[in-house]
Model the fold of this input.
Amino acid sequence: MPLFSRFTALTGALVLLALPSLAAPTKAKPAPAPTSDDCLACHSDPEATRADGKPLGRDLGTFAASIHGQGGLACTDCHADLASAELPHAEKLAKVDCATCHSDVGEKHAGSVHKAQSCTGCHGTHDILPSSDPASRTAHANVPATCETCHKQPPGPAGRGKSVKDGFHVGKVLAEYGESAPVCSTCHGAHDVLPPKDPKSPMHHDQVAATCGACHSDVKETWDTSIHAQMIASGRNAATCSDCHAVHGMLGTEGMPLWRVAATEECSTCHASKAETYRDTFHGKVSSLGYERVATCSDCHGNHAIRPMEDPASMVSAENRVATCQKCHPGTGANFAAYDPHADPHDRERNPVLYYATIFMKALLGGTFAFFGLHTALWAPRSLKDRRARRAAHEAERQASKGAGDQGDGGRA
Amino acid sequence: MKGEPMETASHEETWVERFAAIDRITHAILFTTFLGLSLTGLPLLFADAPWARTMALLMGGYGVTGTLHRVFGFAMLFCFAFHVGRVVFRLYRKRGPTMLWGPDSLVPQPRDLFQMYDHFMYFLGRGPRPQFDRYTYWEKFDYWAVFWGMGIIGTSGLVLAFPEFVSRFLPGDVFTIALLVHGEEALLAMVFIFTIHFFNGNLRPEKFPMDTVMFTGRIPLHELRDERPAEYERLVREGRLEHAFVPPPQRRLDLFGRFVGAIAISLGLVMVALTLIALLA
Done:
């Protein structure tokens, strides 16, 4: 075991070196902190191992290139517990406290959802590079990959947890626009990430619009006039950006087939009964088949600036309804706009004619099929029985005539 | 030859005409357009069914099926208009009384009710098979059901095809009702034709797997005597039987009928299955 013997020899030598100070403990000053060179005496040897066989060597080339190495920090600046330790030091070191220097960041982190995670999870250890360095784990373009080391499937409402890399923001905008594109930290924050339930989180339902509006200010302004925004402002629950726009799997509309049809699904998350009555209409049925050239929710109701029907500025108000229908059906008037696009066959108050017509049709179909179903069910077995009887009679007749024929033939022969 | 037992159809035996060429052509146009309308309309009727989008895409997507549906619809309505015109013309010219009443008429008459009752008694083994004449009660029902269906589905279809024009005269509610009636009547027509009519005309044991009379127009004399004894007696009594004799059907026409019929029956049964999937899903 040459390695082990070299290690024990080295240890022995160090112990011997320390002996004189041990021999005269009373007057001596505290031992000077080990220099980085002292550390490297052991830790630069790629073959040196600890007693348990783990390698002692550290790839310290990366430290020299790191921001801390470049800044001239010594090992003991971070490994502060070693400044007063005797060598060889204990195997278990105290946790490095980055907040010793980075106190502002430390404070933010201590209040975040990641407070139990250490800085090194995102930033690395000896090889930390500044965010401005493209190779850094925290460089803008690398943030999604760094977050994904833990968040393999970005959290989000069910069915929307596609990889953020497939989404529009990270998948496409980042590739095209670089620094100005949003990555995880743009929306979620970095050191101070809070759970979405926390009212201070930029991802809290009440804060989402402001967070998205930081970039999409024009949309935010339009949305602010909507019934959805007003409801949220008055403390009620209503759709904000992320309720319609699939959070992490966010897609661009360019080149995405059927996005207008898919968008009706977003509305139906909350407006289920309206979606159901829409599905009964010609518009709804045709769009279900994947055909986009018919009215979907937003064609009549608008999108970001949706207003309630009672609001005269609404696209579906009594004042604007005709004009809204005319977008697709030019030349139509009040008669046409009187169509109920959410007629409910079960609602006698709202659609009495439809209600009774539905009952009539059900009775007509039920009655016809009940009668002829019975007719057929009785006829089929009777018919089979008859056919069997006819065949038997025919067979008997054939046998009889055959017998007679044989006799006749015999007679002739 | 008359009165001798003949059990199996053969080309050597005597045949009588049942349907004139013009009626067979009308029926051919009717069932071709009916199948076309069913195939293109079914995905829209059950747009939420798991098979709907695929079925529409197989036919070229809604853009294509919507156009085809309108083309078939107009073709069927022209066929219907031609038939009604022909009936009116014949009424006007000569056949008035016998077309409107009596055994050669398709108009429902008290006798049909009695025969229906007798037929049920026969199903239950409590009586002989009724003495059917040229048109049985279920054949009359088929005729008038299609007649009624044409009126209802055709009218509502036109309302849905030209909403902007129709809305000049009628309120918007008419479209909701038209869509409901169009779909439900079509469902009734499809399932009725693909089950009851197919059974009555083709699939029941006497006819299985199909009866090609609507292609050849001819039936063997023994079939006339067995299945429509009243008509047979009437023809004999009036001395008209020999005038009804025709040469045996062309083998080609019979084969063509079997080929087309097999396709129609298969498509129909597939659509019934799709309907059941949609209704049960």
